[in-house]
Design a protein that fits this description.
Helix 4 crosses helix 5 and helix 5 crosses helix 6. Strand 3 and strand 4 form a beta hairpin. This protein is an alpha/beta fold. The strands form two sheets. The protein has a five-stranded mixed sheet, sandwiched between helices. It has a two-stranded antiparallel ribbon with strand order 1-2.
């Protein structure tokens, strides 16, 4: 348009008439979509707040806040802003009895199958400590996370006893073949309470899929970003993260795609 006016030496009105363009379209200046900018800002803020959440999880959080947005739109913003998409965890599920027989069992209700396992970590001086996580396989709720320098079979019994008083005794409790879990004292004690221990095949951690997936999230979203000076500090921060996971973190496998947090799903499962 400017070129036409310069060459023809005519007014804006005549130039528009000459090239068949409406003056309103020539004068139109696109305005930025305020809603889109607010959405972009919220995606970036959530990505910074929850550094290891992927775009799908961020989409669920946005939908929970009331945003009418799909994962494709969030993914576009994710790519444009150069945000990193974490790798997906593989899904596995297989149970083994103490006698070696396989049980293909999927949890169908609360206290049906619990899983527990250790996560190894170190304090700032390089000294190791461990975190024992206990998970309900049906609700995906982390029932306990205990950090200490040493955790033996007696410590496991004391923790489980406290949890049984609070949550009840599960029908099955699944673990790997670590010495703390296969100790005769622990197995006898569980048998007296009619809780059946289930053990995965040695060298196959993916068969304890629920708690392994949880441990991976704990590692990626929490442990990798913290420097601990003592196990007591680690216990306090771990408990804070456990509460966040149970009450805020949306889970894609809870409730047919509604992406509820484990605690919310657990409450609704009781109704």
């Amino acid at each position: 348009m400017r070129h036409a006016r310069a060459v023809l030496h005519v007014s804006e009105r005549r130039a528009c008439r000459a090239i068949g363009q409406l003056r309103s379209s020539y004068r139109y200046a696109s305005q930025p979509d305020q809603t889109d900018e607010r959405l972009r800002g919220r995606v970036i803020k959530l990505a910074k707040e929850y550094g290891r959440y992927g775009y799908r999880t961020i989409t669920w959080l946005l939908q929970r806040e009331g945003w009418d947005v799909g994962k494709d739109r969030v993914y576009t913003i994710w790519r444009q802003e150069g945000l990193k998409v974490p790798a997906k965890q593989p899904k596995r599920a297989r149970l083994w009895r103490a006698d070696g027989s396989c049980v293909r069992l999927r949890p169908t209700h609360r206290n049906h199958v619990w899983s527990y396992d250790f996560v190894a970590e170190r304090t700032h001086d390089g000294r190791p400590f461990r975190i024992l996580n206990v998970l309900d396989g049906y609700t995906r709720e982390c029932l306990a996370s205990v950090a200490a320098r040493r955790l033996g079979s007696q410590d496991v019994i004391l923790l489980l006893a406290e949890m049984f008083l609070h949550h009840g005794v599960p029908q099955h409790i699944r673990s790997d073949n670590g010495p703390e879990f296969i100790a005769r004292k622990l197995r006898r004690w569980l048998k007296t309470l009619q809780g059946e221990p289930l053990y995965i095949e040695p060298g196959s951690p993916w068969e304890n899929g629920y708690v392994e997936s949880f441990n991976g999230k704990m590692r990626a979203q929490f442990l990798n970003g913290e420097l601990f000076y003592a196990p007591k500090e680690a216990q306090i921060l771990t408990e804070q993260w456990r509460i966040h996971y149970n009450t805020v973190h949306p889970h894609s496998r809870l409730g047919g795609g509604s992406h509820r947090s484990p605690r919310r799903f657990s409450w609704q499962a009781e109704d």
